[in-house]
Amino acid sequence: MASILNIAASRARFEQYAQPVMARFAEGGIDTGGQVTPPQLVDAIRQLLVLLQKDPGSWDPSLPEDEPERIGDLCIGLLMDLATWADRLGEREARAALETVTVSIAAWLVQHQQPIHILEPVVNGLALLANAEHEPAALQALASIMEGVVEAASDDYASDLESTDPKRPWRILLFNWGITATRAHDPEGMRKAFSRLRECLPADAAVFFREGRQQVLQGNYPADVRQVMLEAAESNGHGLH
What we know:
single chain, mainly alpha, 10 helices, 0% strand, globular
């Protein structure tokens, strides 16, 4: 988990998975129609990751105050573009890995108290990481990252009450935070995630707690974890009776 928060480790992961994308692109002879190509994206991302490894306090003091926000946002956007190319070229593993790299950039933005504007690849990356984990401690760390991302993205997304698209990133992020905190067996983390879910997506919360109630009653969960979920379900009209 520590490597997810480490930009140097993310650079190494990026280099590993950028190579097959560029190789497949070179083999394909694709007419890009003026689109930015994978080699151009890789070159730009490399430069940004080098910069992100340095403390912003050491950056050129003449840069605007919001430069960390701009650089982080740009890096996530370019990684998303490269992941799209990876998918187009049939490099599914590379796409997934590149989306997990965006989690590192999102964590960097959270660490430096900067907002997050591009959410989709970060949410995808967090889901991939959470689905691959089974240890409560690692899941708790991921839930903590999700909490930070929720707060950093809330200015752009917290007013998202649209309910016709169940795959919108904000909804998935809030659901996954609650699920990950539950899988981490973290009652306090569950309470925080559930509170934010009720606040931001009150209609969706009812669905979440109904399904969560079924899961904790059928699964092997500690009593305190089960109790927090049952209380949340009851408060949303899905009690035991």
